[in-house]
Amino acid sequence: MKIFYSESFLKHTPPFPHPERPERLKIALKSLEEKGFLKNLEEPPSASLRDLLKIHDERYLKRVFEASSTVPNMLDEDTYISEGSLEAALKAAGAAIKCAALSIKTENVFLALVRPPGHHAGRKGTALGAPSQGFCIFNNVALAAAVLLNRGIERIAIIDFDVHHGNGTQEIFYRDPRVLHIDLHQDPTTIYPGTGFPEDVGEGEGEGSKINIVLPIGSGDDIYQKALEEIVLPILEEFRPKVLLYSAGFDAYREDGLADINATEYTFFKLGEIPREIGVKRVAVVLEGGYSVGLRLGLPAFLLGLTGGAPKFAKPSKSTEGVEVMAQYYFSRLKKVVSKYWCI
Ligand SMILES: [Zn+2]
Question: How far is the CA of 152 from the centre of ligand 1 (A)?
């Protein structure tokens, strides 16, 4: 495994108390060090304007660059810009691009350990009618996918398991069948950004390539396990991706702070096992959210699953009957729509 990380990521600093803060990466680094994952750290390059234009609108980029010259500044009520933000955001995007580019050269796992996160950033900033960009400046994982598309890779899977819907990524590739986007997130009627329902399957040629798995409040590891077995793995096996990109957020971890889902190490380990389950050896991981315990425990469990380690943690968490019924409802709704395109 190779990790791309820069001290620049710590220079994106909120002007007031904010969950998306530099300490997040310090928690991640400490935990990875303790678990023996912190070996191959490399400084990423910065993304170029040409790279960014592959997925973002010129006017939006102009707005970001202009906002960065008068700091501190706000892109919207959730998304701040500080002195070091532009440098951090360009390096975060560059790290994701680098990971994707390396993944098609070498069969290995590449991790972009970055901030700010990216999956809520759409072509023009806010995406699919969301109220804000949710702490995101450039869409790092979408850039990784765009670079692969540019190099002629036609079957790319993005698995976004951040607890919030990856609305920016979804918007950017909504009409593109070459990008299968599977997104597992908390029920959008209960959390930001309020998008990502089972019926949102993509448009035009992209119809059927966007899979939104809705998790009711209180979902535990048992619900994730069901989602993996009944939806995620069968679709991936049918799609046979050349490269698997993860939009990896750890805020679904129980009591991580911003959501109401009860995933534990068990789920993150299982999510990490996906490439080996489906026989894909080219993997790039881009960090999204995760604000406390998710980064401390979920991230290393995920990497353990990715690298074929043996799990050493407690039993999976169980959901209540009410939550199971709700999950069943959402899964049936999804299967009804998606079975038109996939054998599930
Ligand atoms: Zn999130």
Answer: 30
